[in-house]
Amino acid sequence: MNRAEYKTKGRKLRDERNEKERQYDKIHGTNYAKQRTHYRNIKSKYNLSTKEYADMLAKQEGICAICGNPEIEERAGEVKALSIDHCHETKIIRGLLCRKCNSGLGMFKDNPETLEKAAQYVRIHQKRAKIKLIG
């Protein structure tokens, strides 16, 4: 098989696969290609199976482990999946977080002392704001 024939065969196989995905999407009302890519990424990055991710999501009732809200951030008109939170040193998975909470932890470099200082700072200023409103 020469190079041109090989490319033609590859295009034909890709087009057939894409058509199967479109048909699947029509039947099931999902975006199969995006889901497949998402699950492939979590398997390669975190060694987490589709079932394990689904179990974690069900255990957390589809909400963020920190703020208790569902993910609201969108990409291309679809709500993103919850982020997989993990310890960067041990690589151990801790839970599923919304993008905002996951980014917040990252900004504080997962440091509990700094996070507690930030929480205390917010509490102090909330109290001051209430006092000003009352007084």
Overview of this protein structure:
By secondary structure, the chain is mostly helical. The protein has one domain (31-134): His-Me finger endonuclease fold (3-Layer(aba) Sandwich), CATH 3.40.1800.10. Helix content is 61%, strand content 10%. It has helices at residues 3-28, 32-46, 50-59, 99-107, 112-134, and strands spanning 74-75, 78-79, 83-86, 93-97. The strands form 2 sheets. The protein has a two-stranded antiparallel ribbon. It has a two-stranded antiparallel sheet with strand order 3-4. The longest helix is centred in the N-terminal third of the chain and has 26 residues, at 3-28. The radius of gyration is 22 Å and the shape is elongated.
What is the overall shape? elongated
Could you say how many structural domains there are in total? 1
The second-level CATH architecture is: 3-Layer(aba) Sandwich
Give the topology string: H per helix, E per strand.
HHHEEEEHH
Query: If strands are numbered along the chain, what order do they take across the biggest sheet?
Result: 1-2
Give the C-level CATH assignment: Alpha Beta
Query: Please, what is the CATH homologous superfamily?
Result: His-Me finger endonucleases
Report the mean per-residue pLDDT as an integer.
Answer: 86
**Number of separate helices:** 5
How far from one another are the termini? Answer: 85 Å
* CATH topology name: His-Me finger endonuclease fold
Rg, please? 22 Å
**From the helix content, strand content and strand pairing, which structural class follows?**
mainly alpha
Main beta sheet: strand number and arrangement? 2 strands, antiparallel
Percent of sequence in beta strands: 5-15%
Low-confidence stretches: none
